[in-house]
Structure formats: C-alpha cells, structure tokens
Backbone:
C-alpha cells in the first residue's frame, strides 16, 4: 500500500519476467466479461485499474507537505546497474539509443505522481513512455528520468453505457482483442505493439477511421498527472464538463505536452464481425491504375469501409476492412480497384480481434531501424505524383521500405462534441514513405552501412512529393520541417499554447517539438 508518506520501493525485476509473446497470447485469449466489469490485462505485476491508487484521499504530491517534502521513487525501478537495463531502455526503433539515469515502470497513478515530483525536485530531465514507438526517440532521454506507464493495464467496460475506461499502458493489440471479446471496438492503428494512449493522443487512425472517426474522437475522458506549483504534482480528471479545454487539447496534441495520462475513457461502438480483404499485385507495373482507382473510390465509399494501400519495390498491396459487412459487399465496393490487372485476393470474415491479431508481424521479424515522413493530401494525386512514387519505390533501399496510404473521408469529416485539436479532417488520404533496414540487436547504436542511403532516400522522396501534399501528422514527426507547429495543428496552435500555459506554465513537459506555453 502507498500512503501519504510513501516508502522507497525499488523492485528490480527485469522486463524479461514479463514475456511479450506470453502477454499478447494471454491477452488475445482473455475471456468475456459480463456487464460492467474490470478486466485485468495480464503482463504487469501489481498493475492497478486505471486511476486506482492505494493512497488515502486525493492523489497529490501535496500530501508530502505544503512545500512537497522530499519525494521518493516508487514502482518497478530500473537503473543502469540492473541486469534488465538494456531491455528496459530500448525502443522499437533502434535507430535511436538513449541511456536514462532511471526508468520507473509505474504500477499505479501514485507512482507517476511520485516520479514527476522527484524529477522536478531534483531538476532531472523527464520523458514519458508507453508503447516505445516514438519514431524520433523522444520518449527517452540520456541521463534523465523515463516514466513508463506501459504496466498500467486494465479495462473497465460498461456495455450498457457503451463506455470503456482503460489503463494507459495497453497497447493497441490488447485493447482491440479485449474489447472485441465483448463485440465492441474503438478506432486504433494497425500496429498492435503501438501504445493505445500514444496513438489516441496524437489523433489515431486505422481501418475503422472512416466508420468511427479518429481514435481521439471517441475519447470522452482521461486521468492525467500534471505539474503543480514549483515542484509538486497532482491528478486531475478531465471530461466534457471538467477541464474540457484540456480534453480538447488531449484529442490530437496530448503526447507529452500537458502531463502524463494514466487512463483514458472511450465511447465504444458495437462490432460483431468484419470482412477483411487483401489484394496483392506482383511488382509495381499496375501501380498508376491501382492508385488512381483507389483514390477515386476509397475516400468516398461506404463509411464502413476502411482501406490502406502499401507499395513495396516488389509488390503493391491493398488492405480493406468492412465493418459489419459481407464478402460480397466488400468485393462490390472494391470492384473498381480489384478490376485492375490480376491481383491475388484473399477474404476473411470474423471477429475484429481475431482478424486484427492475424495480420500482426512480430517485432523480432521487423527491421531494427526506421525512418518515416508524414503528409496529408487534399486533392487526388495527378499521374506525375504517382510516377514519383513508382520511381522512388523502384530504388528503395530494402524490401521492407514502403509507401503507405490510409483513406480518409467518412466519419473523419465530423468533429465530435467538444471538438479536437486534430485539424486534418478535410484530407482525402494520409500517406508516408518509410524506410526499414538493419537487424535487431541488444546493442544498437552501431552505424549500419545502409543508414546514410536510407535516410537520403526518405529525404529526397519526401521533397519530390512536396508539391502534392500538405501538413504532417504529429505521431509521425517530421524532423527538420519548418513551421512544424502549423503542419501538425494548423490554426489550433495558439490555442494549444494558451492551454499549455494554464496546465504547464513552467514547461515541465518538453522535448524537441513540444508545445511551449504562451507568453503571459
């Protein structure tokens, strides 16, 4: 138990104690929950339900005294001398390698309060981490404190109200499979190991986007630990009637800017089954006709249909999910695309959790290093833009490198009650060139000989597409971009700065492209 004068708790179990493979397998097999119930998602020792704390009374560092007496780190703590340190510090993208002073794996909200207070009192650089997919390594820091909330795993589902409150440590696979067991869903991205909180707080899109809107559109509440005074911390709960300005900001600009989200509350949608279609064209000879058919069809089709096109140097792929639809419906909706050339087509019908689990790729089978460039498109690509894609994909540095697209339209165009900071609702589609290379290792940081070529390819590719694209996606940050503030948030940026000044006036939460507080 953690009381108002917590003792030092330093548990140094390594991350190997919690096998990722076992975690995902167990999560996917989680049983159904009757009525409104709490589901503990396996994988983290002593993880409390979202928002839970053993502390008596309000969760706040003020409990230490008026001046916030010396804070102590609690939770599962990993330091450089511990045997699990290497595993604990590494992220998904091994292009970046940082050496934090200490990593705190929070077991409940009070651990987060304690860690934030400790960092402020000791003037230590701070970063927040959940799924470790920060694509520029900004969720880690050298010689600083990393607050990792990935072990805050639980789900409380009220099926009658269609509301789910989840711990911020769930990844997307855990969220999808757990909700799907009860025939419910929220929008998530397609990569299961990405943290649900991180995806949602930046906007969040995937196969269900055109049907349910952005992931952040379904976010109706959150628990968040914020800085208080000169060196303290406190917990606030936001929704549409309490601190609604902060909820607006969390819906699209919440990653590491205002505080540390420890739980999220979603409006969930009933979903019993989906039809999943995959079509594959050998090579990229049919790319122009496939892409032209896709961009004329996908953003305007039935809202239940979500599609992605992924182009590699050796093949062109179409992925589609039709919510509550049949194979015949899906093929009819996709007919303008599938009629191009002679694609190999497969169709699967099933529970969304089973389908989602089926197309996951184990991290161990993915390249170690990645680089992406995000962009939105508001007018269909002309033929010369598609030719740019063909040209660069023929010269891609590896087979894993790709050009990825996601159709928008449908529910994306409808902003939810209370609005969101996500501004790109008029886009026809999102796209990104991505380079993947190198072999995973427990000793990253050695320069891969492909790195200069891969980075140059991305830079030249993104520059060549610039006349045809607009904006950028904060979850896939573009380093070196001028005016990144308006690229991510357009006209919402100054409002975000004012909200930052209200909730984090001392700019405690900062990184390379974080939002600074407005000047008073």
Residues:
């Amino acid at each position: 138990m953690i009381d108002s004068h917590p003792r030092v708790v330093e548990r140094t179990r390594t991350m190997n104690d919690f096998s990722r493979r076992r975690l995902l397998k167990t999560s996917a097999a989680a049983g159904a929950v009757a009525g409104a119930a709490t589901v503990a998602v396996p994988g983290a020792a002593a993880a409390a339900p979202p928002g839970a704390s053993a502390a008596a009374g309000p969760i706040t560092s003020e409990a230490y005294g008026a001046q916030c007496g010396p804070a102590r780190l609690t939770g599962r703590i990993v330091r450089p001398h511990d045997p699990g340190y290497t595993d604990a510090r590494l992220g998904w993208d091994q292009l970046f390698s940082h050496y934090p002073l200490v990593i705190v794996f929070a077991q409940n909200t009070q651990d987060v309060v304690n860690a934030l207070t400790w960092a402020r009192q000791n003037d230590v650089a701070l970063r927040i981490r959940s799924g470790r997919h920060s694509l520029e390594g900004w969720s880690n820091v050298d010689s600083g404190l990393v607050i990792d909330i990935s072990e805050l795993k639980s789900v409380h589902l009220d099926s009658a109200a269609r509301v789910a409150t989840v711990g911020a440590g769930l990844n997307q696979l855990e969220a999808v499979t757990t909700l799907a067991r009860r025939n419910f869903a929220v929008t998530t991205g397609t990569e299961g190991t990405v943290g649900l909180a991180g995806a949602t707080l930046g906007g969040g899109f995937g196969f269900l986007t055109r049907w349910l809107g952005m992931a952040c559109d379904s976010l109706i509440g959150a628990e968040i630990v914020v800085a208080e005074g000169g060196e303290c911390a406190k917990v606030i709960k936001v929704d549409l009637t309490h601190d609604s300005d902060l909820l607006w900001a969390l819906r699209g600009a919440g990653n590491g800017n205002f505080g540390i989200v420890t739980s999220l509350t979603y409006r969930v949608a009933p979903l019993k089954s989906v039809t999943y279609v995959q079509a594959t064209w050998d090579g990229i000879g049919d790319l122009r006709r496939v892409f032209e058919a896709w961009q004329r069809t996908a953003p305007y089709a039935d809202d239940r249909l979500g599609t992605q096109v992924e182009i590699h140097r050796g093949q062109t792929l179409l992925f589609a999910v039709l919510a509550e639809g049949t194979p015949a419906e899906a093929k009819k909706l996709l007919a303008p695309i599938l009629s191009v050339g002679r694609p190999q087509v497969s169709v699967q019908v099933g529970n969304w959790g089973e389908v989602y689990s089926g197309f996951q790729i184990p991290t161990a089978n993915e390249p170690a290093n990645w680089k992406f460039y995000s962009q939105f498109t508001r007018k269909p690509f002309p033929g010369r833009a598609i030719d740019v894609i063909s040209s660069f994909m023929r010269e891609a540095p590896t087979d894993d490198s790709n050009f990825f697209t996601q159709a928008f339209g449908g529910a994306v165009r409808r902003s939810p009650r209370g609005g969101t900071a996500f501004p790109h609702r008029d886009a026809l589609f999102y796209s990104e060139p991505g380079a993947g290379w190198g072999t995973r290792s427990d000793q990253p940081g050695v320069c891969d000989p492909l790195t200069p070529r891969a980075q140059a390819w991305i830079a030249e590719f993104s520059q060549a597409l610039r006349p045809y694209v607009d904006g950028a996606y904060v979850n896939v940050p573009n380093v070196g971009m001028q005016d990144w503030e308006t690229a991510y948030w357009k006209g919402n940026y100054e409002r975000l700065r004012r909200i930052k000044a209200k909730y984090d006036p001392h700019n405690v939460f900062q990184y390379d492209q974080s939002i600074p507080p407005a000047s008073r």
Remarks:
- The first strand starts at residue 37 and ends at 40.
